[in-house]
Amino acid sequence: MAKLTRKQKEARAKIEKDRLYSIEEASALIKEITNTKFDASVDLAVRLGVDPRKANQMVRGVVTLPHGTGKDVKVLALVTPDKEEDAKNAGADFVGLDEYLEKIKGGWTDVDVIITMPSVMGKLGPLGRILGPRGLMPNPKTGTVTMDVAKAVSDVKAGKIDFKVDKAGIVHAAIGKASFSVDKLAGNAKELLDTLNKMKPAAAKGVYMRSIYMSSTMSPSVQLDPKAV
């Protein structure tokens, strides 16, 4: 195992072992122990008491973080010519159709989110092997396949993120940046956790929120108290 640096040791020393922190305490502590030269991303990892292999226990959805993600999200709108102006006005970084489909075929995926219309999905099918592994395939469940392209673009730009439970039953989501105030980080964390709580599958048995950890890029993680959520 790699040796810890002095800063990493100091950061770990500030976290009380076996203590469960409130959302506000964890947000303040993460800000205190993040020592990166760049504005680190702050993430939540929530272990749920679900079996994601069963369709009736799949947890997937979207949430609009009240204080945004702090990230400049690059959006590609794959739309027919009549929707191009709407997508541009809503803030899409790239707008078009066939020329971008060709670029993606050539391996270009320099975007964070792709938004499209139902009539265009047929053309995207063959690109699934490129877009799927990168999490870029548009999906009606996450609002990225829609007739109201302008609203979808502005929602994503304003801090709408999608999340999905992984094979281990964990939801990972970025909830802001280390430069955010404690109130903003805590507000975003609460919004995500409230949304997850409301999505508890009826088929899930036992404790739903098993554990919640907050961390930033390169920082150790801080455990939150699931009961306080």
TrEMBL record:
Described function: Protein L1 is also a translational repressor protein, it controls the translation of the L11 operon by binding to its mRNA. Binds directly to 23S rRNA. The L1 stalk is quite mobile in the ribosome, and is involved in E site tRNA release.
GO BP annotations listed: regulation of translation; translation
Family the UniProt entry places it in: Belongs to the universal ribosomal protein uL1 family.
PROSITE patterns: RIBOSOMAL_L1
Gene Ontology molecular function: any one: rRNA binding
Subunit structure: Part of the 50S ribosomal subunit.
Highest taxon in the source lineage: Bacteria
Organism: Lentiprolixibacter aurantiacus
Name of the protein described by the UniProt record: Large ribosomal subunit protein uL1
Keywords, sorted A to Z: Repressor, Ribonucleoprotein, Ribosomal protein, RNA-binding, rRNA-binding, Translation regulation, tRNA-binding
Pfam family, one: Ribosomal_L1
CDD domains: Ribosomal_L1 (cd00403)
Gene Ontology terms: cellular component: large ribosomal subunit
Gene3D superfamilies associated with the record: 3.30.190.20, 3.40.50.790
UniProt gene name: rplA
UniProt lineage: Bacteria, Pseudomonadati, Bacteroidota, Flavobacteriia, Flavobacteriales
